[in-house]
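ARCHIVE CARD
Drawer: 12
Card no.: 0347
Subject: one protein chain, sequence and derived structure
Cross-reference: see card 0346
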Amino acid sequence: MKHLVLLACLLIVGGCASVSGPPPAADPFESFNRASFKFNEKLDDVVLKPVAQGYSKVTPEFVRSGVSNAFENVGDILTAVNNLLQGKAGDAAADTGRVLINSTLGIFGLWDVATPMGLEKHHEDFGQTLGKWGVGSGPYIVVPLLGPGTIRDGIGRFADAPLGYWSNIDHIPTRNSLFALDGINVRASYLGAGETLDTAALDKYNFLRDAYLQRRLRMIYDGKPPQEKLDALEESLEPPAAKK
């Protein structure tokens, strides 16, 4: 913990000169966030991306798909609980059915047989649940090693943790191996998207920040956010100078 605090302080000091002018309302910690973003990007370039490329090259596609399905099957438990907390009993029942079917007929979730049977997959977490309950997102923040989020999403991650596999496996080597496999598999699935982003975005930090916040807003409202919420988010992302 001491090392993480020291790292955060260094990132704040090092990032203060990287942004000119006041930050937008949604991103008051922009100097720190940009420095943290650069740190995460360098870590990805040096470690995560090469490992993911090697994993993708030596692992057949059907194996990677099975790994993804298995982890997503565990994630459906979390989704079911949050759908229930949001008052969406029908979706919660469908999520529970997905877990039961994929865990049995799909052999521990390696095959997604529930989707072809008409049980739609959902994606819910406690950060979205808090948003449904009217809790504001709070400032945008990029955490070293963990990536982008908001204060609300950070609280949501802690609340979701007890339902994650990493919190329910006592054997540390097994837990760490699964955690690493999950991360590598997810990173491998985004290899193509990362290359597209590198060539398309003029300011990658701004692009990813805006995309993250817009995506989270749409997820909270199941893809149909009120126009006033979209307008408020857009305004909060504008630099103060642009509003004059």
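Annotation on reverse: Residues 30-58 form the longest helix (29 residues). The first strand starts at residue 140 and ends at 143.
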